[in-house]
Amino acid sequence: MKKEFRKKVIGDRKSKDIEFINKNSSIITEKLLSLECINKANNIMLYLDFNNEVKTDDLITKLISLRKIVSSPITLKDERKLVPTQITDLHNGIKIGAYGIREPKNDPNLEVNVNDIDIVIVPAVAYDRECYRLGYGGGYYDRFLNRLRKDAITIGIAFDLQIFDSVPKEEHDAQLDYIITETQILTPRK
Ligand SMILES: Nc1nc2c(c(=O)[nH]1)N(C=O)[C@@H](CNc1ccc(C(=O)N[C@@H](CCC(=O)O)C(=O)O)cc1)CN2
Ligand SMILES: Nc1ncnc2c1ncn2[C@@H]1O[C@H](COP(=O)(O)OP(=O)(O)OP(=O)(O)O)[C@@H](O)[C@H]1O
Asked: Class assignment of domain 2-186?
């Protein structure tokens, strides 16, 4: 169920051209930068995009210029663990890591304490309208999000084509605080 659904959505996203991805990524970036919670936050973790995900390079550059502490995950495959590591310059200190995804070079001095993170911007394959998340199937973010401070804010960014009335889900699947697409902002019904 999950596997088939994942494959279909990854295929749909892959079929979009670079103009679509760039245009909608920049709309989503502007929306994020106008959120009060982003402007108030000091410490923000976000992913480095791959496979036609919403692009985050411009967002990262802007957040660094706003003097935020910005980190991206190093993926430890054996432990199924994400290690948030600070990025100070997108053109320096980045390498290709697990699954061919860009990640910060390992530097224990730049590791960010999970308790210091105010906001996490999360990648996904698909979401439902209640902000439940379907990922790539490694369980990386499900495990990681559980370790955050209780008042940390989780934001999913995605294209409209990744939003469904329902997605296959299991007990451990994460529910986020906000989903932002090129046309909508979703929050779970209270
Ligand atoms: N940009 C980004 N970074 C991220 C994630 C993500 O979804 N997006 N992850 C979110 O958890 C983690 C990596 N998770 C992954 C888990 C499994 C596979 C995987 O099974 N890939 C298949 C091929 C998939 C395909 O290309 O269709 C493979 O390697 O065989 C990939 C990534 C950490 N970093
Ligand atoms: N919090 C958790 N603790 C232990 N195991 C977990 C946890 N969350 C998920 N898993 C396990 O990890 C595997 C993948 O989970 P799932 O299919 O939900 O991943 P996903 O959310 O789609 O992937 P990702 O977060 O990497 O994008 C499953 O076998 C699941 O049982």
From this structure: alpha beta
